[in-house]
Every structure is written in C-alpha cells, then in structure tokens.
Amino acid sequence: MPGPFLCVYGHTNLDYIMSLGHFPELNTSVNIEEIKRYFGGTGANVATMAASLGVPTALCSYVGLDFPPEFRELMTSKGVDLSGLVVVQDQETPTVWIISDQEHNQIAYVYQGPMGSMDRMPVQLEKAKTAQWVHIMTGRPDYYLKVMEECRKAGRSISFDPAQEIHHVWDAPRFEQAIAMAKAFFCNENELRTALRYLRLKKPEQLLEKVELLVSTQGKNGSLLYTREGVMRVPSVPGCKVVDTTGAGDAFRAGFYAGLYRRHDLVDCARYGSAAASFVIEARGSLTNIPSWEDVLQRAERIC
Known about the structure:
This protein has 304 residues and is α/β, with parallel strands linked by helices. 31% of the residues lie in helices and 24% in strands. The chain has one domain: UDP-N-acetylmuramoyl-L-alanine:D-glutamate ligase, CATH 3.40.1190.20. The strands form two sheets. The chain has a nine-stranded mixed sheet with strand order 5-4-1-8-9-10-11-12-13.
C-alpha cells in the first residue's frame, strides 16, 4: 500500500478562543465578551485542511484520554490517516486558551499535555518513512531531531516549521541541527527574525545556504518565497472579512502542499495557500470553515 504524500508532526489541541475589547493591565481584570471551544493544534490543522484539499495526509501526534470522539470523526471524515495519533493514558489532551482583542492581537496560554513529554516516547516513523514530504511542527526538539535524522536517511523531503515554539522551546544549537536536515523552512516574520538570530545571519537570503526553500508568511501582505533563483512575493486574497486569524498560517501550509501534490509551481502553491487561509479567517476557530479544493481554486483567481 503506498504511503501518504504528506506526514505532519505537531499538536492536536482543544482551543478555547476568548474575545475581549482590550488586554488589561497587570493585576487588574477585564470582561471576556465571548468564549467557545474549537478543535485545533498545528499538526491537526495542517493535516485536516490538507486532506480536505485532496492531499493524502497522515498525522503523528499525542492526545489524552479526554480526546473528543467528534474531533477524531472530523479528521477522519476529511481523509486524515490517524494511525499515528497516540492516546496517552495518564494525561489530558493539549489545550490552548487563546485571547484576542479588537485589533486581532493574541495571547495564548498553552497546556502541553503528552506533547510536552513526547521526547520520552518511542519515535513514530512508519508513515514518515513512506511519505514524500514530512512536515515538522510544534513539539519536543529532541524527538523531532530523531525523526528528521531517520527521514533524512530515508531520502524524505523535510519541512521544518516550529512556529511560535521557535522562540521558547527550541534553542540555537538544536535549531541549527534541525535546519541542516530540512529542505524547506516555514515561518512568519517574527519567527524568521529568531531563526536568523540563532544562525547568526543578517538576511533571509542567507538561509538558502541551509535550505532550498524559505516560505515566510506576512499576514495581510501575503507571503514571500525565497529560493536560490530569487525572491517572489505572493499577495493575500483581497476583500476578505477578518473574523479570527487563528489557524490561518496552518491553512496556508495546507494549501501550499495541495499545490505541490498536484505538481504546480511555487508561486501557484503560495496562491493556493493564501486562498485556503482566506477561508479560515472568515470564521472563529481554525477548523470551522474548511474549504474544498474547488473552493480554493476559485478564490485563488482573485489574487493578482
């Protein structure tokens, strides 16, 4: 049986998204205007969205006994291979409390659950060793360095994408080890600055000495693609109403892989990424407004 095109490693979370008018000063209080539970997590977001866009995708992640059956049903209904989703008996599912103000600024409080101790667990490699692309996201660095080493030996294409954990979970020595094994590096603007600092580099282009492709998302300004042939800017989809930006970057990655799976060029891949992200920002929760591939194609036509 052939392996998946994409194997994603990362969090599977319960997200509690709260809205308020403004963030309070220390030692004061403020009223929460809205609170609701959603399904999310970096790994689950990318895997579910990619599978919904027609990409054969497997997810490797760790959850607790309280993992909701309806979350599993959502992912399987979109086609995600969950044979690498491990239920850890004595812990609870990773949970994130995300607080957003009226300007769409966010603060997140993260309970890691079993993802915080995954480096003490046996490394899952079955799906990764047969995938064409292995996408490494949030989780424990020591675990992922083992995964990346084995996938490198097996000739897999590796994307490194530690997201916000680049700032406080990874450190310079381990980051250097990881980037040396990657073919692509995904980040936003803040994460790119930390990556350059870890590597003692001054310009993003210098990262191309380490990887073949650097993808830097720029929020409403779209994305920048850095390759050894040059730098390309791809705009975001114009005219979208922003309700909640949670999971937009993950949706971008899923759209990007949907393009790669269909052998499109990198600029078109980024256009599909922007199109996929545009659906997510129109609703609260990262897996609330999941588009089809036909939806993404249609909306990508709006990008000049």
